[in-house]
Amino acid sequence: MFKQLLDEKSFKEGRRITVGEVSQDIGISRATLTRIANQPGYNTNTDTLSALCDYFDCEPNELLKRVL
């Protein structure tokens, strides 16, 4: 879901947005964002989710996917 939101934001802004840029803008480490993007079921905290929701102007359900 993170990658999809990143692609959508890049398209809307007409430029490439990198994970590193998101990391700098929201103050979350690049490693954490990479894990969120690449590891299904990665456990993160609500502060990180809130920062990502603010950055992407979205709701948590747009970032999260239930993994069984």
UniProtKB/TrEMBL annotation:
InterPro entries: Cro/C1-type_HTH, Lambda_DNA-bd_dom_sf. It comes from the Bacteria. It holds the Pfam family HTH_26. Residues 15-63 form the HTH cro/C1-type domain. This is Helix-turn-helix transcriptional regulator. It comes from Marinomonas vulgaris. The lineage of its organism: Bacteria, Pseudomonadati, Pseudomonadota, Gammaproteobacteria, Oceanospirillales.
